[in-house]
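Lab channel / #folding
Pinned by the channel admin:
"Please post every new chain as: sequence first, then the structure tokens as a reply. Keep commentary short and put observations after the output so the thread stays searchable."

First post following the new format, from NK:
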Amino acid sequence: MDMHMPKISRKTLIGLAVTAALAAPLASASPTAIGRYKDWSVFTDTANGETICYAATPATDKAPRAADHGEVWFYVTNWKSGRARNQPSLKVGYELREDLAPKASVGRSTWAMFGVGREAFADDSDDSRIVSALRKGSELRVEAVSARNTQVAYHFSLSGSAAAIDKAAAMCR
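Reply from TO:
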């Protein structure tokens, strides 16, 4: 991504735009389903006239089980304009604590993310490493803390992730 804005400001702006554009893909009528690749799906959507393409998968396990997590999805997003390319993010059904960094793990690799409302993003410098791990791994784990101080953990299957990520990127070239 070659934008010349400070990292947090740019990510926050992108996060707000993505939040507006990608409200739970299956609950909204506006995203268009492109295809399913094992446990991942590919969608396109439009935000302020811009085309957005994303690969997404719902959480396969949510802890603690008694908590109301709402919809929990992990995305890899591309904007046709180039504003974002292969940007990983987490979307949950509640507010995240912004002062406690969520952590994403694939295998032995772990990355800190930052929360913006109901979403979490990685630093730009980690995006390509995370996406590479998503493409090659078998499971993604994300741990976070809600605004109500509930420690949560999610598991996501990575079966089909490589094909879905490739398709979403191709759709927004």
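NK: The longest strand covers residues 50-58.
TO: also worth noting, The chain has one domain: 7-171.
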